Amino acid sequence: MYRSIVLIPVLLLPACSLTPGMEMETNSPLSHIEVPTMKDGKLVKEKAKIIPITADLIIERANAKQQGINTLPTDNAPTTAYKIGPHDRLQITVWEHPELNDPGSEKIDPELAGKTVQDDGTLYYPYVGNVPVGGKTVAEARELLTEGLSKYFKNVKVDVRVLSFQSHRAAVVGQVEHPGVLSMNETPLTIAEAISRAGGVNEEADTTNVTLARDGKLYKIDVMKLYEKGGTDQNLLLKDGDVLNIPDRRDNKVFMMGEVNKQQALQIGNGQRMTLSQALAEAYGLDFNSSRPGEIYVIRPGEMKPEIFQLDAESPDALILADQFPLQAHDTVFVGTAGVTQWSRVLNQILPSSFTSVMSRAAFMGM
Fold it and tell me: Where in the sequence is the domain holding 118, given as residue range(s)?
């Protein structure tokens, strides 16, 4: 009789208040807690919407991805010729006038030879003065110098070439062998050439999620498509100030939690496509003794735009939807716990093992 009296208050307590471990709030269209969310350019707190995984959702997301995939910059027309800029060094040769080419018959170190373009885009040349060569091609700079010298000399023949390219640069950072700044020369610098000049990507590179930062905007570049499928649309010409970032694939993981047979972090990236069903299979499926198949969640943090998706897999054919639902890096797959299992865990934590054994024997004897 005493044992029954002790057990009654425990049985009257709400199971949800005693359930150990994590649990998603069921039968609610919103998350249980508020999360940071970017809205109208500001960070606010709000509850994330729980979105059912349905055929309509998969079709909608697939169509949106096709329409918005790789929105690349449109101002990518190749330049016809190199534009001279500040800090470039030019070699200027005036034929049949050695006094202009080598004043005072001084031998100049090749490293210091030539005329350096100043910050304002001008360079000084005898007789002509400051010549505005910034933003001009080599041919245009030659015309300016020829016009200026023709006021003092007859039949002037001028040759101009760039000795050192310093004004236009692009950076390659991340998972390449030699990250750093690359100078751009008369040959247009493409993404493939820039990566090659940086020593190529290393084994930790995620070539499917390369980003190009240009004029305050980020563009996604699929370098693997360029390398393996000849996707020349990805091989953009770089511009002055561009930053090409090759990310680390080791950060691209999907986290399996809850009532799966193996909680773990799954590596994805470099062109690998992982669906919800594949992730569940990698985790050796659901624990059918303790899981609630109707509560399979995919929690996606996004870039301050969190989303929560729910798959009701009470019916096995729902796994068709799971196989068509692609996961993204940093997704967390959480499988809910069955109510009976939750209550069993509560009893195991509250009741001593010896008392549980006594109750089991009492039940067996019909007490």
Answer: 89-164
